[in-house]
Amino acid sequence: MLVPIYESEEAHVAKHQSRLVGVDSATDHSSQTQADGWKSKLQETLDVYSQSPLAKCSQGALRLADFFAHLQGMNGDHAKDQKKLAELLKEIKQALMQESLGENKLLEMSIPEVVALLTKANVQKIEKAGGPLKWSALSSAEKLVADAETMSAVVLKLGHEAYAHLSDEEKHKADSFIWVGCAMHKDLNCVKGGNEGMVAWWDEHKVLGPVLLANKDNAAVLEQAEDADDYTVSEQRAHDASSGGGVKLAALAGMVFNNKNDKIGQQDMHQHFFLSRGVKKSKFPDTSNTCYQSYCAAAAELLTNLKLYLEFMEWI
User: Fold this and answer.
1) How far apart are CA 254 and CA 166, in angstroms?
2) CA–CA separation, 219 and 226 (whole Å)
């Protein structure tokens, strides 16, 4: 959000900052529990502001409806509970929006119109209770609950009517709520799909492509092959099990320069070598584990420092 910079000597200087409402553990992972937790945490924050000197000075208070009126969406992963949570937050936003429209409509009505509206609602409330006698038999607490429900129903009805008279543009703005899923899988799919697309292009256009980077056993089998167009069954199997290109190279580089087993690989020697050449180098990207973007980072690292990596390979 855009917030003022208080330490700046210039007036009205602001910059975008991230603000946390609160980091708490939900009692369970149900979407409804998480939605209730959001409402509770937000209401707590709004109550603190409403009781602050700043709110008293400005003679203003913030309500939950004011927050949800500005809520434009939610970002989360693709788990079902998070998708359901987004739907619940959208429903809360729409309900509070229509409630606010109803309150504003009620304030705009004349006193005779309000009296007529509430009189009609009061009659319906007593009929719902079973008639005047049964209404009189209710306790004070039960009557208060019924009064609150009746008033809420009146406000929501006015809100529905006010919403129906909004223009399409106003409705679109009021209903705007965007759910954004986790992007890390999209990044992974782009890299994986791009690599498969390149390999398919080589085959389609009869391009030789990168050399195979076969392991020791498969390399021994392929070295005995006389003609690539006339592989034996074992030679074809060795060929199909082998791959080449940037992904394979990055994987092999990760196994050499930053192996997940600290007793294998050249990770320590890798850093010492670069330091000896005047380059302070952090660990090589972790391609040994499933880390998003690690292969892209490995490719960038190898391309950026290609001469040093070639020298290092010859050196070791």
Assistant:
1) 59
2) 13
Per-residue model confidence (pLDDT) at position 158: 92
Please report which confidence band the pLDDT of residue 257 belongs to, taking 50, 70 and 90 as the band edges.
very high
Closest C-alpha among 242, 251, 261 to residue 296: 251
**Which residues pair with residue 244 across a beta bridge?**
212
Answer whether residue 186 shows pLDDT above 80: no
Instruction: Using alpha carbons, select from 73, 63, 147, 145 the residue that is nearest to residue 100.
Output: 63
Phi and psi torsions of 107, nearest 5°: -70, -30
Q: Mean pLDDT of all residues in the chain?
A: 88
Q: Angle at which helices 306-315 and 267-276 pack, to 10 degrees? A: 120
Whole-model pTM above 0.70? no
Per-residue pLDDT for 8 more than 70? no
Q: How far apart are CA 119 and CA 296, in angstroms?
A: 70
Tokens 């391009």 identify what position?
207
Alpha-carbon distances, residue 268 vs 154, 206, 216, 277 (angstroms): 73, 42, 25, 15
Q: Please name the residues in contact with 84: beta carbons below 8 A apart, sequence gap of 6 or more.
A: 31
Give the closest residue to 34 by CA, choosing from 94, 77, 97.
77
Element (H, E) at 74: strand 73-75
Helices (H), 130-231: 132-137, 140-164, 168-175, 184-204, 216-223
Supply 162's token pair.
């006010």
Structure tokens at 262: 């600290």
Amino acid present at 226: E
The Cα–Cα gap between 78 and 75 comes to 10
Q: In 3D, which of 181, 182, 191, 186 has the Cα closest to residue 287?
A: 191
Other beta carbons less than 10 A from residue 207's beta carbon: 9
